Amino acid sequence: MAEPDIHPITVAIERRIDPARTVEATSWMQAGTDLATGFAGFLGSGWVRAGEASDLWYMLYRFRDIPTLEAWEQSPQREWWLESGRTFADEVRVERRTGIEGWFDAPFATDVESRDAGGAFPASTATGPIQQPIPAAPRRWKQAVAIWLGFFPTNLLASWLLGFIPGFAELPLVLRVLFATLALTPVMTYLVLPWVTRMLRPWLQRGS
């Protein structure tokens, strides 16, 4: 049996909202985030409008993994919430981001109307939602370059350091690779890739 995906799952939803129902839609969008906060695995959510004169609204939420996401998406509470907005909200596009692509998600600006997993508003949301669409992920070749820039020096350093361990070079190739990947995976995940993508973010987002 395949192991469940334990990576955080980010879902971005694009909807068209009846401009005459903006006040109702604002309350409706917030009600959706309020409902999601009560589900296990909820990591946060937010929504933005493409522009004051635009009917495009974007909602984004994140869960711990696929099972917790599906528990929310298949819940009667969410079905009731979606049904309550059918008359003024039309879903246009849904996008999921998971695994390594999550490292390249552009963060929300500080004025986005959003709540954290505890349901509290950040202090910076006092000005209301910003008029800005959700940024797209960087191009695939740029993601590959960023990963390589982190992986090459990390792997080079690790190979040099492992050479000082007595008897390591005499181990079978499979065991050497196993030990190296076990050591490097958390380093890449929690230290190297977040740092590389933060340093390269202006270049990664340019032209996305």
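(ticket continues) Second input and output from the same batch:
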Amino acid sequence: MKKAFFVLSTATLFNMPNLAHANINVCVFDLLAKSGESYKFLEEWALASKNWGANIDLTAYKDEAKLDQDFKAGKCDGFYMTSMRARNYNKFAGSIDALGGVPNNAIAQKAITYVLDKRNQKRLITKSGKETYEVAGIGQIGPAYLFVRDKSINTVEKLNGKKIAVMEFDQAQKIMVKRVNAVPVMSEISNFVKKFNQNEVDVVPAPAYAFKPLEIYKGLGNNGAMVNFPVLNVTADLIIRPEQFPEGFAAQSRQWFVRQLPKSFAMVQRVETTIPSKYRMELDKDAKEKYQKLLRDARMDLTQQGIYDPTMMTVLKKARCTIERTNFECSLGGE
């Protein structure tokens, strides 16, 4: 009888979620490693994950390319990194960062909430060979603006011939820069602002989150500016190998991310206010509309090329036209 009780108790213990899924490693990209906002955000998530039957160990990375390599090598069971690079693992979620697709925080919040809704569960799972990936969350990093070394670069036409830092892994950025007859300079997240600060490029797109830690003000000097028009919205995707996590984990994780959105957007707005007003350059109405049309044409072309997910483009347009009903594109087809 005692032996039977022991066997039953042992079996019960080993079937407990917390023990069955111990030592799950999630790799986190943050420019500031463990002291950054993204890493601290994932610490809160890891704590909440205990309620869903998982013990999460976090590993911080300042080099996103290295994180990607380690995930492919099986050193991470999941990762949190920019959607631009994570698009390779799930095109639907990764297309939130489409050029000009999300022009403000209100639209971003609406789009992220929709993507993480349970009705999109199938779209958030990708199979690639023997691997299965699932989106378990999307976090807001913030709108990316063009930082220019010379404030005379205040129209689309004046980008002609200028050197612009682009992420080497993102085909969309390369194609876009060529469309405005500028020169794409291949970069990584670890060095794109460094090239701007050292006068190797004339323009760098970056979210406000990067302004202080990467010292963008050094590249701006006395004559530079931040063009106060977001060219894209930067998010981060949490993607996991679902078989390494408890059943139903990703769904609970996505719900947690949605609940955190107000807090995340408050953080973005707080960071944006730290950029001194002397650097902000406003565009006139005509210049803004030229940028919008240029980004729209590029977005549609990139979707046709298979870089962006067409369903996501439809979702983003609906979100934009719900918030900004009088925008010129709302009466046009094509997305």
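Agent notes: Residues 1-21 have pLDDT under 50 and may be disordered. The chain has two domains: 21-141+235-272, 144-233+279-317. Closing as not reproducible unless the customer responds.
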